[in-house]
Structure formats: structure tokens, C-alpha cells
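Researcher: Please predict.
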Amino acid sequence: MRKICVVITARASYSRVKSALAAIHEHPKLELQLVLAASALLDNYGSVLENIRNDGFKVTARISNALDAETATAAAKTTGLGIIELATVFDNITPDIVFTIADRFETMSAAIAASFAHIPLAHLQGGEVTGNIDNKVRYSVTQLADIHFASTEQAKVRVQKAINSSKSVYNVGCPSIDLAAEVLEKSALDFDAFQLYGGVGEHIELLSPFLVVMQHPVTTESHLSKTQIDQTLEAIKQLNIPTCWFWPNMDPGTGGTVKGIRIFREHNPGLPIHFFKNMAPAHFLKLAKNSLCLIGNSSVGIRECSFLGIPVVNIGTRQAGRERGINVIDVDYDATAIKDAIERQIAHKHYPSNTLYGNGGAGKMIADLLDRVPLNSEKLRSDG
């Protein structure tokens, strides 16, 4: 029985890997070990603990390593503390494979701790290209990883070039598309978002047309985060369309983003905007699917929204270079440009489904590969 330790460090990481967790948990030859760390445990940034419990997963260990200072120094220290704490956890639970996700800075903690403990490392979503510090993190984890689960064919090729090998590199698609495929089949808003998730602001009518906004700071532009969010807030104010707005990730620059939102709320009472911290992955996708448009810079606009055909206005450089479908309009941090792009997307309405990031089934494929991939480090590099 192989023990697969999946490390979740943020709310987005959970939604990305949920279907793989289920497939690992249900696999007769695999044992799921689930470790939560960093902002995944913080209520301010959408703790995933309740979602995990509701989904029937058992948490093996929790690591409180996040320095909630929203600075580059805090990010580095959070990563360092994560290495220390995860090294102890891995020593205690002795996993056969450590599974790390995507490109957030906390991902480095799991990659380094596993590598120095000589535990085979599996990495999801390597080979992609984006803006900010994520590129460096993603590439570094690719170099440390032994097993690579890419989400597109182009990403798979990039990983093969990066490690100078085609062995143990698989295009499985993105597990988040597994959830999107379920939502595509059953997309009705069959839950009360306000009762389940609270939040602050006006109670808007979700049976009428509404927008969804999720905008994070860009780590390499953290000093501009307030100015950048101000432009989006102004565009939404001018449109005056009911809006569900989601709190940003814990990144350098989050303080500026949050400050901009709070000042805006104080000076614009009564606008039809409701702010949420977090939402279960399926509920969020249903909300987005029923919206007029998703606005911001989250990768969900590039991945899940492409599959679901949701119109997206992508702002700024955070997703620069990432493969995208025709559902995305890219704009700079300018209120007029953002407003115009939203109006164009509303007029266009929804797009056909795009399978660039897969068509479902990634979770099961990942579990099957984790069962049969060779674990000896030399074999990982020589056997497919």
C-alpha cells in the first residue's frame, strides 16, 4: 500500500486537486495522507478545513507556518518555516510519495523537504508560464520533482525540455476540470451562498444578472496592488451591476489590495457588491457559471472558465504567458479598459466549452499513475 502525502497550502490548491484526492482515497492500493499548511488554515484567506471535512477527507497533519504579514520577507520566512515543519511531518508519517501542487511560494517548502528526505516528489501543473514569482517557483519545483503531472500538452513538452527527459512526465489535464465537468452537467445555483458563506456587503439577487470578481496582488508588483485594485473597483462601480467579490490570496501586496477594498467600501455604501472569503469549489464554479462574466486575474478564469465557457476579463500580468481559450479578454490596469471589456463580454455571452486543460478524468489518471510509477529515483528517470 503506497502512502501518498498531498500537501495543501492554499484554498486554490484544494480546488485544483480535489478530484485527485478522491481518486487516491478510493484507490485500493493507495493510502491518502493529507497535510494542511500556510494560508489553507487561515480564516482570513478562506480556510479549507470545513470544505475538507464536508468532502469526507481526514487531515493527517496541520502546520501553522504562515506569517500573516503579506510581505516578501514574510513569504520567504513562511517558506522556510514550512521546510522545517514539513521535514518533521514527513519523518513521522513516512510517505512513499509527496505530492505538491502548482506554483505558490509555499509549494517550495514541500518540494525541498521531500527532496532532502529522498522521498519521491510528484508535482502538478509544471511547465506552465505566468507572470510574477510563480514562474521561478514552478520551474524550481519542476527541477526537484521526480514525477510530473502536466495539464496541457505544451506544458508537458516544456517540462521534458526543462529536465532533459521524457520519462515520468504525463499530460493528465487539470484535476479542477473534473469538477468543472460535473458543474457543466448540473450548473443550477442549488445553494444559498449568503447563508452558507456569510460575507459582508449588500445582499444581492443571484437570480438576476451578476458579475464575479477575484483579483490577487502580483508579487513582483506588490507596491502597486492598491492602485491596481482601485481601477477594478472603479470599473465595477461605474457598471453598477450586482457583484460577488472574492477576497485575495495571502501574497506580498495583499495588504494594498485589501486596503483598497476597505476604503472603497467606506466611501461607497449601498453599492450592489457582496464580498466573500471563500466558497466550496463546486459552489464557486456554479456561481461563476451563472454569472455574466468573471473579472480579475485568477487562474480559474483561464482554466475552469475556459472549459465552462464563461466570459472572462483578465487584468494585468499575473497570468501573462499562460495558455488560454477564446473566452478571455486581456486588459491593463485601467478602469475604462476594464469596463469596456466587461461590457463586450456581457454582450457576447457564454462561449463554447474548450478542452485545452482536459475534459475530466484527471484525478483517476493521477491516482493510477501514482500506483504504478516506479519509486526508485534512478528508475523514475529511466522508466516511463
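Model: The chain is about 45% helix and 15% strand.
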